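call fold target=Transcriptional regulator
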Amino acid sequence: MYRPEYFRAPDLQAQHDLIEEYPFGLLTLSMFGSPAAVHLPFVLDRDSWPYGKLRGHLSRGNPIAKALSENVEVLVAFTGPSSYISPDHYETQPHFPTWAYAAVHVKGRPRLLDDARTVRQLTDLIAEQEARLAPKEPFVLPRQSSELFDEYLQLIQGFEIFIGRIDGIFKLGQNKTPRDMAAQAKAFRERGTESSLRMADSLEQHNPFPKFS
């Protein structure tokens, strides 16, 4: 990952936070001399050595599922908030258009899971996502086996990745003046959309904003 020093992720916790907030990652690897990729939701286990562990699943029919058993190194990319930045929204001039974003790249070697651990991965993934839908009563997997679930389980392959390396870039205006980034955050808040409010939160979190009288 290319990353100027001023866009470095604050710490491991910030990178973990991004993965948990935006768990739909892009897993990439090399197969037969060509790049291959699949988009998947992940569960993060923060406390696993050395930098945490990812757990996921994919269709057994996907050729990547077989490749994961062959001790290959994979990269999983997670993308957080991102947006175009207009020069018109800075307090000072001149500026040039740019893009603000945050992303985390994870590298490691996958290990396949047996059915019991795959069920655990599904249970944890569903619980995390259902919690976001509160106050709806959460959906949970049935404790007892069923014909439908047994059939589904045979169609998927679970896996885990102990994180061997993790890199993050948080390109959120840290190379601009605090007053310019305060103006950008204000412009995002005025749009009022869910994505623009998230971007404003990110800009405010990673920049020392001035106190206006």
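return ok
The chain has a mean pLDDT of 94. The chain has one domain: 5-176.
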